[in-house]
Amino acid sequence: MKKIGILIIVACSILFYFFPSAGEKAFACESCSDDDGAVLSFSKIAGGSYGGMKERSFILLSSEDEWRALWSKINGNVQPLPPLPEVDFSTHAVAAVFQGRKSSGGYSIGVEAVIEMSDRVTVTVRECEPGPESIVTSALSSPWEAISFPLSAKPVLFTSIN
């Protein structure tokens, strides 16, 4: 019985090491070009496959009013409107990334890394699309993700990788 308990603890430790909390990301981005910058931790605050944004866009938000207006646009077809995820805009900013309307499922978008350089903060976005042999839903989709990260006075730039 004692051996089973030890095995469970070891297995859980391995899982937590390789699969950290889904809300927090802080790691080096191997495919990002900003290797000499400081990796900032960030938290996914919302996302999905069916957002209300028709165009591909990357948006930086610095106030609750901006966030509330965008949240209403993202969830324009959802009633009742889901609660607005809380963000302390005195210490954090929000980056929202949208892949735009797609003709099927199988697409995704997400923030890969937030890196602070001496002159800027770079938000690296990964966009994926289904392969020609992929089995996907035939419904329209509009993938998106919103993250919060520590506020900086430096300009924020977005870069996309595939």
Shape: flat
Q: What is the structural class?
A: alpha+beta
Distance between the termini: 48 Å
Averaged pLDDT, please? 84
* SSE pattern: HEEEEHEEEEE
Q: Can you count the helices?
A: 2
Tally of domains: 1
Strand content: 25-35%
Number of extended strands: 9
Layout of strands and helices, then pairs:
Elements: H1 2-18, E1 24-25, E2 38-40, E3 42-48, E4 57-61, H2 64-74, E5 92-98, E6 108-116, E7 121-128, E8 144-150, E9 156-161
Parallel strand pairs: 7-9
Antiparallel strand pairs: 1-3, 2-6, 3-8, 4-5, 5-8, 6-7
Short structural summary:
This protein is of the alpha+beta class and 162 residues long.
What does this structure look like?
This protein has 162 residues and is an alpha+beta fold. It has one domain. It is 17% helix and 33% strand. It has helices at residues 2-18, 64-74, and strands at residues 24-25, 38-40, 42-48, 57-61, 92-98, 108-116, 121-128, 144-150, 156-161.
Note the main attributes of this structure:
flat, 9 strands, about 160 residues, 4-stranded mixed β-sheet, 2 helices, single chain, 5-stranded antiparallel β-sheet, alpha+beta
